[in-house]
Amino acid sequence: MFKTLILIDSEFMDYSLDLIEAADRLAGEEESVVYGLGINLPDKALKGLDYLICVDDPALQVKDSRVVTDIIERVYRNYQFDSLILLATDFGRMVAPRAAMRLKAGLVADITGIEVDRKGRQLIRPAFSGNILANIICDSEPIMASVHPKVFHAQTLTKEPEMIPFTLENLKASTIEILDSSENKTAIDIREADVLISAGAGYSAEMASLQELADKMDGSLAASKAVVEQQRAPREIQVGQSGKTVSPDLYLALGIYGSIQHVEGLKNVKDLISVNTDQKAPLNYLANLVVVGDAAEFVHKLTARLNQ
Length: 308
Hints:
The chain has a 7-stranded parallel β-sheet, sandwiched between helices. The chain folds into 2 domains: 164 residues, Rossmann fold, CATH 3.40.50; 118 residues, Rossmann fold (3-Layer(aba) Sandwich), CATH 3.40.50. It is an alpha/beta fold. The mean pLDDT is 92. Strand 6 and strand 7 form a beta hairpin. It is 23% helix and 27% strand.
């Protein structure tokens, strides 16, 4: 039996349940038993888990990474899991290293794949700025990993988990005080978009020039790491290992070379169109359709055609 604990993020419930697939892959040929840890969950009607450990206390500050780390440590000491998996969201990236230090475990961050063979359990992640993929053999326990949303996709989640109430005693109170909050006015999360128009370093025009095309195609704008680093686009729309993992029906890549770092941000894309002056750009070999030419000119002509 291989026991895995998944931290359920109340803001990303569906993405958290996708980690069940990662847990099952990590178990290999062993029986996979998946526990979820939910802290003040607004909705406990989750499916796919074997057990749901429920921590309910209105006084808890669930967005304090130190408080959540304390809870993870107590739950782990009680159940002795073989692995712990967290989402690599902004909050998950604060919790994961704290929990790893507390449990004296190694942490493999931002994994993109899992393999189990005669060499053992291997977690795969990009290395050297995304130029290579590294297989990291995990031979100590617990195995800890963080995963971008949408890297894994759990299927047919029908199992009803057994509820396990977990009572906390003498938990150190949070010292974080919320002074003010405001609503994020950003557009649709690119992870939810069915159509993405994505610009790379090879797209010479301004990002704003893509908005008309995006509107015509009922899509959203995205960008590569290079464009974000050039401060031509916000990080919220960055696709890639250091950005967001996306699974649109259509991905229109404009002037994107196709480094491993970027490709790892594309999962289960149904149709990929690549527009690039470099016919040998790596992304072209993954595309359903390749247009060899200037991306800005392509956008101008396609927008004009759609307007007709």
